[in-house]
Amino acid sequence: MNPASNLVNVRGIVFDSLTRTPLSGARIAFTAADSVGGSVARATTDSNGTFAIALRRGTWLAALEHPRFDSLRVSVPLRRVVVPDTAAFTLLGTDLPGAITRALCGSNVRNDVVALVGMVRNAATNKGLDSASVFVKWVDVKLTLRGFTRSTQAVVTRTTRDGWYVRCDVPATASVVSWAARGGATTGAVLFTMTGAPARLDLTLDTTARPSNGSVKMDPDSSTGSLFPMSAGTARYHVIVRDLNGRFVSNARVRILGRTTARSDAAGAVTLDSIASGTQTLEVSSIGYQPERRVVDIAAGREPTDTVVLTSLKSVLDTIRITGGRDPTGFERRRSAGIGQFITAADVARENPARTTQLLRTRKGLRYTFDRNGFASIEATTGIGCQPLILLDGFPLRDLSPNSALAVPGEALLDWHMHPDEIGGVEIYTSPAQLPAEIARLSFGLPPCAAIVFWTRESLGLPKANPMP
Questions:
Q1: Segment holding 151, helix H or strand E
Q2: Could you give the CA distance from residue 171 to residue 110 in angstroms, rounded to a whole number?
Q3: pTM of the complete model
Q4: Fold assignment, 317-456
Q5: CA–CA separation, 284 and 251 (whole Å)
Q6: What fold does the segment set 99-310 form as a domain?
Q7: pLDDT in tens, 407-435
Q8: Shortest CA distance to 27 belongs to which of 83, 82, 69, 90?
Q9: Residue 214 vs residues 184, 226, 231: alpha-carbon distances, Å
């Protein structure tokens, strides 16, 4: 205590129970519990979630405010803080996810669901849209005595007069896709993963958009039809693709999710036509770079230009050394040994697959499996839970988890990394006994149980192929 001022130095941390991390930028208002209409002492947490304030000895009520909770339209209950005679430290926690969901949805909600809230706005006026429908879909995977069962779950809710909506039965840990619709017009789909806490999702809708024939499948072998309807509009959207050094990336694949893919030119530029304004999901990928997916809001009546910077895989992944020669990758040498399965560029051209994973579906010893969030991954049937080491031009891709923001529910990441017209060859080894030594050592640990090695046409010295239809 400071004798001159009769104040005690109080330090503390505000802990965010939604993300289980310190909460920066939180505003704390301290009011003495034994006074009426007294003054209020205020503090704000720094980037580490800490704060410092001088208070007199006694009991105080702490009110927490933060934009995250303001956006959810919930208030955090008062916290009781007792200040002793000497310097003190206190830990203030926000409400747990379940408490916030109950505040939004009532006390009868299940423990395994959370609230999804937000607003649907008019792309032209930015005002809330009344009676817009907000759709949420996910894949429900259950383990039974007979194995895994998969089903698509879908819910829909309507916005209020100010465009606000609350959906109370979204799985707490699912990967979901959501979009809004009104009067035949729809936004683009937004893909995201619920992390056990309530979330906010705002969508912007072009009310003048018209229905389109485009669609997105839930997974490569989906038989349930389109995942969400598509709309077309009059907006033009320009994209420039660069790398971290500022160089243009040519021949990158660029698309609005659900629409036809376009390729960037020598200046890294792409123009996407007949796009509906409002919320869309942009996807950009190129061989040798980490794919990029982002949610964009395209302003009505404008032609925005967006620059996408791709990160080279060389900066984040280890690589295999390739020596010079007529067969620098060793592909032909291993193929002539007759061990494993091989797919050549001629095989790819003959089969003409729509996506990379279709090349693997007809190969022996491989199968698809799905996790509880509906993510598809490839397993070797020669071992229980054997997920092959996957290489692309010598770079291991297994560390690119399906739970990342780049993943699409039910879509194998291989389809996102490589298009069939870029494949020069594939090696498939479904058991440890088949693995060549130079492939096995790339696991950087225990030898892999299986491996799938992709080589681009460029790495094998083949000319670029014409894009497949």
A1: strand 147-158
A2: 10
A3: 0.65
A4: Ferric Hydroxamate Uptake Protein; Chain A, domain 1 (2.170.130)
A5: 11
A6: Immunoglobulin-like (2.60.40)
A7: 444 445 677 777 888 899 999 998 888 88
A8: 69
A9: 14, 8, 8
